[in-house]
User: Fold this.
Amino acid sequence: MIFPAQPFYMIRHGETDWNVVDRFQGRTDIPINFKGRQQAAYNGRNLKKIITQPNDWRFVASPLGRTRQTMEIARSQMELDQRAYDTDDRLLEITFGDWETFTLKEIGEKFPFDVARRNINKWNFKSPNGESYADGAVRIKPFLEEMDRPSVVVTHGGIIRAIRHLIEGIDGDTVANQAVPQDRIYYFDGKVGRWL
Assistant:
């Protein structure tokens, strides 16, 4: 396990139409939908109640549109400049390679052997030309180690799973199969992480 030196709040981007139908997004840039905008606003209102000195916090998002939209809506609810935040490529979702744009059902029909392999070891499984959750953990570890001030992070489900694996020590296959809510905030206080 690693322990970032600073506390942070972490949010998954709001819902997209592809989330609704279990379509693999990865690096494909899909906007959040109406419900996703509501989720982002809700999380922003909650952050406003929690963070009393927002200028002391770094705000950073994955550069994909759905995370940027989520960050900007959340910041507007906090009555902050919507665009005054950083992006970091290490927060990008893991890529699902050739599986992107397909639903899990479609992949299961075309590549049942690959889906069976994924179900056996989801943490380490790589779709063709894709990354595994384990790869995502390797990529995000330096981001956590370099965190030098309290932060608000908007990222993706795969990266949130990787971060929880690193800071909570949750077994890879266990965390890879856990749901990542889009309407809640994850808080790490410097020692313990939990969903609020």
In short: Residues 34-50 form the longest helix (17 residues). The mean pLDDT is 95. The chain is about 40% helix and 10% strand.
